[in-house]
Fold each of these.
Amino acid sequence: MAAIVATVADRVETGTSAGIMTGTNAVPRPAAVPNQDPSKPKQPLSLEELMKKHERAKEESNKPKFMSKKKREALAARLAAEEKAQKEQQEKELRDKRKQLEREARDARFGEGLAWQTEDERNAELKDIRKRYFGRQREKRKIRRMNDKKFVFDWDEKDDTSTDYNPLYKEKHEVQLFGRGHIAGIDVVQQLKDKGEFYEAMLEKRRSEEQKATHEAARRRDARDQAKMAKQRHDTRHWSEKPLDEMTNRDWRIFREDFNIACKGGNIPPPLRSWDEAGLNPEMLKAIQKLGFENPTPIQRAAIPIGLNNRDIIGVAETGSGKTLAFVLPLLNWIISLPQLVREQDIDNGPYAVILAPTRDLAQQIEDEANKFARPLGVRLVSVIGGHSREDQSFKLNQGCEVVIATPGRLIDVLDNHYMVLNQCSYIVMDEADRMLDMGFEPEVQRILEYIPVSNMKPDTDEAEDQHLLAENSRNKAKYRQTVLFTATMPTSVERLARTYLRRPATVNIGVAGRAADRVEQRVLMLSEKQKRNELVKLLDSMEPPVIIFVNQKKGADVLTKSLEKMGYRASALHGGKSQDLRERALSQLKDKTKDILVATDVAGRGIDIKGISMVINYDMAKNIEDYTHRIGRTGRAGSSGVAVTFLTEEDSKVFWDLKEMLKSSKNSVCPRELEQHPEAQHKPGTAVNKFGRKETL
């Protein structure tokens, strides 16, 4: 403020007409008032007015001013040029500075004027000086000992004096004869090349224009394929980073190893990497995304492409691996490809597909899972199982449906009473086939398959493996009959059934048949009958619901359920002695968390899928290892982990050996010492050890 006042006073005294400068902005003098009386003395400008004018000028200069595009480009170019010049100047200064430092360092090390010499040159000069004044050091000749019997005929390279003056020893003379390549013109490679060019030129003259175009296209295709193969040989990307058309056989092999997939059979299509590559109907893909299925499971990756090709399948996978969607999705995809009018006209001919399940509970579970996709797509499903009114089921069948989900016994009853026919059934699924045959349903299954027409059976030839032929055939309702068989184990009875009714099937193995999932931690406790109840209470107090407890007897399930309810636990029972309504109620109570514990027999051991089962307790050990495998498969499903606890007594000695082998093969389970060292666990049931220590089959 003082500087401004001094400047103003100075300008007023000197009478200059220049503006007042403040910083870089000039404030001009105010113009004379035209009506001012000249006789009156001039009044100096007030300080406040000068300050206001200065502020107004500053605001005007700070306001953004419009610049045309040309001016902006010119300004940007000028700024860029200035920046570049400044950068180059800095780099030049740095280079000069570095050179100066290097020069000073060389002078300090070697002395001024010797920095241009290399170290080798200086060493050579010092060596010559030493030779001049000290003389040449003569090497002593090596004297061969008299006892050296082996004479060395080769010259020492140091003794060879001919290389100093004779250039012939340095450059060998090449023989120049007629021809190229080999001596005397005998070049086999060149002869074959000339022969090929001769025949190619001769054929080129004889080809027509159409043949020339075809030949050129084939040549380009071969060149493209060779370039692609050369690129693939040096491609080190992971299979997840490659598009589908760039996958090599090695990538598919690594992919199958990553998901533990093993396939047998000819012309098997590659597995799915994602849902987008499945070739499913867009509406079905929307339903998959809506239901939250992000990625296919291993059995779905391998089985869905085979099912979409109308190929017979034998699927062997661990429990809880997602087998239901593996056969439901290809089935629904084929049905919705048929026109709606055709489907309505064929109501009287029966369903297009039949899904067989060993138990009512598994059939209802398949119906629930399939309806999640079938209802949005307009596909009608009907379940034909025991425990429900036959008249209600026949009424639903008369209204028409595309898919029937049934147990073998009730389906035979319906077919024998002519409530339904299978005149156009061309898709048969047998889920849990091993359990179905173990329960004695093999005659019923064979009778059901006899009801299905044989006019559309696949031929037992290579045509049953031809992908293109099968895909073309599956585009209409009169396609080849497709039989799909899913199982967790592969006993002889299942193999016999597959050989009889399947044509050139593709076998898909996920993991090891009959083995529990590695996600299930198996714990075994050696107890007496009296200790079981106390140990069970300890486990229930430390667990998170829901929990399934398996027993062997129906009466034992009811007694244990009542005991748990008296102790304050929310428990329900499920076994074959209860009606279908009570069984469904027990399952729904466990699913909606009204009950925390389900006490069940082997009825719930197969196929029942309840999400979030944290623990399975085998209060009574199963009678065989197959039932044990399916029991513990109720936990650790769909990629989650689980715990299976088994109470063993001396009465379970028949399964000791199988259980020990299963625990040893599991990655996250430990075989207790009492079981491992038990005499009954040392040899397989049905064998004995003779006096020589060898096992013999009894």
Note: Residues 322-455+468-501 form a domain with the Rossmann fold fold (CATH 3.40.50.300).
Amino acid sequence: MVLTKEYRICMPMTVEEYHIGQLYMIARHSLEQSGDGEGVEVVENRECLDEKHGKGQFTEKRIHLSSRLPYWVQSVIPKIFYVTEKSWNFYPFTITEYTCSFIPRFNISIETKYENNNGCTENCLGLSPEKLAERTVDHIDIAYDELSAKHYKEEEDPRFFQSRKTHRGPLVDGWRSNCQPIMCSYKLVHASFEVFGLQTKVEDFIHSCIREVLLLGHRQAFAWIDEWIEMNMEDVRKYESQLQSQTNSLLKQSAGSPSASVSGPETSLVGVDGGGDGIQDKTLLGTTPPETPKTPTKKGYFSNWF
């Protein structure tokens, strides 16, 4: 049985603004979370083209995190452990898959859509009646949901933070009902771990990790708004490329990680992050390099992890 949740995360900004803020946040967060041989290594980042969604950005990353897993998970995986993330960003729609060759029955996929509203669209991702019946909706409040103590920083707390450049914030209780501008990330997450005796525990653990990451990342995207609000796409792509190189170098120095090839700003045209629930490949059209992994469709469950 696949555990399916739809996370809805509102932000005090527009979908267009969040496109820049998301790229800035992911690049900075990846660098800050890297060290001691663990973190996010960017393997590939380049343009792709899809017959349905058009021009987008394909990224592949390796997420090194074995010592951060609970003991009962570490006991069933090798010591040298990383998760592969593949993301197709056709903003404001994205697909992400997480795979692990060591654990072929570990299946995670995320499909994301962004809209300028407060999370009121009941079927944003166009699910069938059967899938709607299986889905659980979880509204994440970036200001008032509890964040773990190890990640908490008062200067990143939306209840106290106010932007100098936009004058947005602090966010008061009930802010999602009357805040303008406002947008929402709708993330449909499928999690499956088909190992007898561990399935329920692991699937619950996956979703608890996902929720914490989503809460932290979106809080940071808002708290860092003064750093990115005046950037355009060219600016944030240059910033992203610089930090990807720093992150990869940090991982290589601390853990002997193999060198990863990171494309320069000339090929970094669209964003990363998102979700998906696809399985089989779909033909890509146009000028997409033939070696670019193809966009998954919605015909089953691909082996992936988050």
Note: Residues 257-293, 296-306 have pLDDT under 50 and may be disordered.
Amino acid sequence: MPSLPVQLPPVKLKRSHNPLREVFFFLVAFVAMFSGAMLGLDVLL
């Protein structure tokens, strides 16, 4: 795997498994992906 120009921060192995936070981040990522897809379709069509 080639080295990336941007170094990723080390992954914390000790993650707090907060279900509410997991759902919140999932919703944020889903809304961002969905709005990006809608914006792309709006630009294309």
Note: The two ends are 37 Å apart (CA to CA).
Amino acid sequence: MQTSQPPQAILTSSKQQQQLPLTFLGDNLYVRYGIAGGLSAFSTHAIMVPLDVVKTRIQIEPTKYNKGMVSAFQTVLQQDGMKGLTLGFTATAFGYFIQGACKFGFFEVIKQGIMNRIGKERVMSGDLKYLQFPIYVSASALAEAIGTVMLSPWEAIRIKTVNQPEKYGSMNVWRGLATIAREEGVLNGYFRGLVPILLKQVPYTVTQLTVFSYATEYFYRGLLPHFGKSKNDLNTSQQLNVSLVCGVIAGLTSAIASHPADTLLSLVNKPGETRSVLEILKSIGFRGVWAGIVPRCIMVSTLSAAMFLVYDGTKVFLGLPTTGGK
């Protein structure tokens, strides 16, 4: 029976680890996965804040922002100036660093934990290959559920800052969180949107990580061998280009899978909104849940490509191999 490399072997056998030990991080590679995931999610979501502001406004007030994305940008600029396009930046940065660390860290803990017990090569290309899909799905779903609980308070203050800039725009994020807790209570204020966040983030992450994992594995294990090459024949720059392209594919599919819940999340946090998720869904109908799909596809595909590029680039810096292959 074939067995997979233990985590420590992956870490110590990496060429990058020999060049840059970073011993202060210890020999637990999952800490490194978490750091890489946190930095990738933080940096890429922070960059996309202006587009996310416009997307949220379109979802909240579709009758006002109904002339396309460029017009929506202009309206936000006229109303709130450049500051309006950066609303919620701090909440986005904090929230997605924590969420990214949980998402990628626990995904690797769960995925590799299962594969190390039953044999990675048996799952990836052997008699247990049929388990590959359920392992990816279950690991990504559980990891995202943990990350989503941690993200929920930050997402609540981000959306309120975007939708109520006159109230929350001048507050720092800590004061904003305290205001929500005082006026609405912790559970209702921070976690009122938890169900739609889960409905948004879990399908998003399951699709994103599963598609990305399959795409990179197909390239390294399926496509390259047809040309008589392996992953080791590619330099780091070429491997990161693979991560970039696979990230675009993963981003487009995950955007479509999670968009209806993303729309509901924005509407649940709309000022004065007291209806339940089901009541909102009935009122906007099937067509309404797809409001803002074009800017979100643009945002998410760009975001996903950049995120996986930063993720794998940071992994290399921390002494880990890029995603995919042996």
Note: The radius of gyration is 21 Å.
